[in-house]
User: Fold Lysosomal membrane ascorbate-dependent ferrireductase CYB561A3 from Anabas testudineus.
Amino acid sequence: MQRPGSSSPSCSSTSRCFPLTHLAAARCGSETAAEAEKREVRAHSTPPEPSRMRSIVIFYSCYLSCLCLGLACVACVCVWFSQWRGGFAWDGSPLQFNWHPVLMVTGLVVVYGIGAVLYRIPLTWGQNKLPWKLLHAALMLVALVLSIVGLCAVFDNHNHSNIPNLYSMHSWIGIAATALFATQWVFGVAGFLLPCSPISLRKLLKPVHVWFGGTILLLSIAACISGINEKLFFTLKGNATGTQPYSKLPPEAVLGNSLGVLIVAFGLVVLKILSNPEWQRPDSRPEDFAYAPLIHEDNE
Assistant:
């Protein structure tokens, strides 16, 4: 049925009046002329369906590459320190140090990067955002805990072996990345998950949160690359034990360099996903900053 004085039919369901994403818009009899014009402008600016499908296919290709590269990074660092460096322990010995690169690569790079692109998955668009926010926070917490345990491993090993702490550029970058990560997580939970946080605060924090997210990933990659080089230079010296020097590029050096390449490739794919505006969650776009659900009141 029609509303009195309205030339357009009313919507038969709230799903037609209020689509799940900004990509579809229906003109309802209850909306004002300005709202109808705004919806019409957005509809005309929406790319054609083949372009959207191609964009989604490219996204999932990048996302699959991200997952594969992340798994390859974790496998590579585990093989390196289990096969060439003697394995793992927690007794203050060099075997305890071996936990440091494994946990830092896994937590500060791989889990962090996968958690960062979680909001870009198209299947999450149009759904309740709260569960995905909780999953995002949980993944970041796992990454933070792994990073802190990795730092504890190297500090305990250095103290047990009377090795100075925090003297290299690698250690400075790693500490800075972990400290910023911890601060980012605390402010993220306080600003985006607490019910008492106002929307104005979320609008203020969001660009800062996004910028620091990318910055932390870049610092993490820089820390891992410098740490890989540092480890290879320290261990592959061509000494009396028969170890070939790094300059000869023995198999261990090839594996270490390959790990560095995989980490850089993983980071580039993650940054590609994060920087593409077509892959942003619709309610994360500037014109859709407020993601509170609209309420349809039927006056029939």
Observations:
- The chain is about 65% helix and 0% strand.
- The first helix runs from residue 14 to 17.
- Residues 73 and 262 are 6 Å apart (CA to CA).
- Confidence is low (pLDDT under 50) at residues 1-46, 285-300.
